Amino acid sequence: MAKRRKRKKVLPRVAVAAAVVVAVLVWWFVQAHPVLSAVIAGAGLTAGAVVLVLRLRGRRAEAVRQAELDRAVESTDGMSGSDFEQWTARLLRRSGCVDVEVVGGAGDAGADVVAVAPDGGRVVVQCKRYAPTNKVGSEAVQRFSGTARYYHRADHPLIVTTSTFTGPARDVAARVGITLVDRRRLAEWARGGAAPILVDTA
Fold first, then answer.
1. Please, which contacts does 134-139 make with residues 24 or more away whose CB atoms are closer than 8 Å?
2. Counting runs of H as helices and runs of E as strands, what totals does the chain give?
3. How far is CA 21 from CA 18, 25, 26, 43, 190, in A?
4. 201 closest CA partner among 112, 121, 99, 114
5. pLDDT in tens, 63-119
6. Sign of CA dihedral 182, 188, 194, 195
7. In terms of pTM, does the model score above 0.85?
8. Is 7 helix (H, G, I), strand (E, B) or coil?
C-alpha cells in the first residue's frame, strides 16, 4: 500500500512571508517619509494612551458604584445565593480580612466563604440568602457547628443571613460559640460598621 504524503503546512509559511512583506513595506515607508512616520507613531501612542485612561476611569467608576451598592443591605434582596457569597466576601475584605475565598458549592461542608482575620484567626462563613420571613432555625446552626471548628478549623465561625434567627438558633449559637449576623447587624456592617468578628472577639 502506497504511503500517503503528508500535507505540507502551507499556512505558517504564508504568514511568515506576509509578515516579511509588511515589515519591508513599513521599513520603506519610514525611510521615505520619516516625519510623517513620526506623526503617525505619535498619534498611535496618543490614541493608545487615551484608550487606556478611559478604561481605567471606567473600571474606577465601576468600583465606586459597586462600593456604594455594597453599603446597602437592600442590594442583597435580588441576589442569588452565589452573588450573596461574593458580596459577603467583599465585606470581609473591606473589614481588613485577607486571603478571602468563596468556596461555597457542592461538598463545601457548610463553608461558603473563608478568610484570615486581622488577628490572624481563620474565618469561616456560612451564607444564607433568605427572604425576610424565612428565619434560620437551630438545625442549621447545629449542622454548621459540627463542621465549622473541627472540619474547617475555624477560629471565627459566622452564619450571615439576610433574614433573622429563631430563638433556639440563637441559644445554640451562644452555647457553641458561633457568631450570628442577622439582617440588622448585616446592615450596620455594610454601612461601614466594624465586622462582627472584630466586635465579638474584642
1. 134/163, 135/163, 135/164, 135/165, 135/166, 135/169, 136/161, 136/163, 136/164, 136/165, 136/166, 136/169, 136/180, 137/165, 137/166, 137/168, 137/169, 138/166, 138/168, 138/169, 138/171, 138/172
2. 7, 5
3. 5, 6, 9, 24, 60
4. 121
5. 545 555 566 788 888 889 999 999 999 999 999 999 999 997 766 678 999 999 999
6. positive
7. no
8. coil
73 contact partners, CB below 8 Å, separation of at least 6: 162, 183, 186, 187, 190
Residue with cell 463553608: 111
Residue type at position 45: L
Residue in the structure block whose three cell numbers are 451564607: 127
**In this structure, are residues 141 and 171 in contact, taking their beta carbons and an 8 Å threshold?**
no
CB atoms within 10 A of CB 190: 21
| Burial classification of residue 183, based on how many CB atoms lie within 10 Å of its CB (0-12 exposed, 13-18 middle, 19 or more buried) | middle
Tell me the pLDDT of the chain (202 aa) as tens digits. 555 555 555 567 777 777 777 778 778 887 887 777 777 777 777 777 666 666 656 666 555 455 555 667 888 888 899 999 999 999 999 999 999 999 977 666 789 999 999 999 999 999 999 998 999 999 999 999 989 988 889 999 999 999 999 999 999 999 999 999 999 999 999 888 777 876 554 4
